[in-house]
Amino acid sequence: MNNMYRNSSRLFILLAGLVLAALSFTSHSEPKAHILKPFANLSAESQDCAACHKDKHTSLYQQWGRSKHYGANVGCYECHVADEADADAIEHEGYTIAVIVSPKDCAQCHSKEVEEFSASHHAKAGKILGSLDNMLAEVVEGALTFNGQSPAAVSGCWQCHGSVVKVMENGDLDPTTWPNTGIGRINPDGSVGACTACHQRHEFSMVQARRPEACGKCHLGPDHPQKEIYEESKHGINFYANVDRMNMESSKWVVGEDYDAAPTCATCHMSATKRLGITHDVGDRISWTLRPAISEKIDAKDIANGKESKPWQERRADMEAVCESCHSSGMVESFYMQFDALVELYNEKFARPGAGIMAELKKHEMITEQPFDEEIEWTWFYLWHHEGRRARHGAAMMAPDYVQWHGMYEVAERFYIELVPQTIELIEKAEHAGNTEGAEAVRKVLEEILSRPEHAWFSGTEDPKVKAAREKAQKEFKERYVQ
């Protein structure tokens, strides 16, 4: 009897397992396509487009079918229609269309968003031809072997920054510049930007654009690791742990009202709070610029050029309003004091001195005008462009490992163990070559820098009491852990 019972139980468990496996296999192997409602309310032109693309490009058709555009009877033609005079206009199945849907096209319905975006730093991202980054991709890493362009730039820098999209004589888009969804793309109609950099076509999902992965295509890696920094921070940890409580489908998505588990990139830089509206100018709430070798307040360049600009104090107040959706004003104020102190430390101890040394070397012709043809130029580039940016962004987004081990530790190592010795070597080389005036000028700059209190440990001029206190603490540490 017991054996019969055991055998029956085993048979039941086996059958149940087979049924579950079959259901699982069916649900994963045969996903049902989105069933679209009849599109009789679409324009006649878009009905023609949809009828054809439904079969030829089923995935695009299904993505559009899940979009708000579909629900609003906005079809292919409304977005892709072009004028015969447009530089990229083509004849397609009896209609004049353009492959590229530019911000100018989107502005027909989304004028406020396009106006805000056009004022942002994102919109200027395509103007990188004169940058050191682009010079690396075109010359140092690459060669002009792909229709007169460097493949390293075409598939690298330009895919984030954006390319100048060119139309060839036969009307086709130049393959060195298209496909491209770079955020600062320069379009044939003269507009700048690509809305699809963040709002991936053809679904244009709010949820997708609100997630940190949307920014990760470009904001990651050794010189701008914002995505990795976010993931290390308490904000990122909370987001991934509580994504099911983020209410990502909300139409208004106000932090502190519609969700409170964590902020995403969009929360801080774009989305609404109880006090602030949505903005597509991602720099509108940023007070420091952390991109260049030496950080400045975000409005400093405009002020120097006599241009009007939203003051950095107002920008910071807006970001503080985002922070205060979850944190007390005292905590937010103290955070900004910590952030400012780190940026100023980097600026004053390493960035301004490094920039001063490099300028003096160039002034006295101890290095050439050509970028990256000498070791010290690579050293300096790593210091500010990679390690210095990581430290500053880490402080801005509360990622301590990026501030320390990926940031200031590597900045310091690069400065003391590479930049300073390489400068001394160039001084000696100049003396041997007879450039004594230049050698003496650079030596004077270097000696003045290293005589400052923040470099006293390196120059051997540290206050004995400070040194003794640190040695005492080190001894106590070793007694605790080295036993």
From TrEMBL:
Cytochrome c-552/4 domain residues: 106-167
InterPro entries: Cyt_c-552/4, Multihaem_cyt_sf, Multiheme_Cytochr_ET
MF-aspect GO terms: oxidoreductase activity
UniProt KW keywords: Signal
Superkingdom of the source species: Bacteria
Span of the signal peptide: 1-29
Protein name: Hydroxylamine oxidoreductase
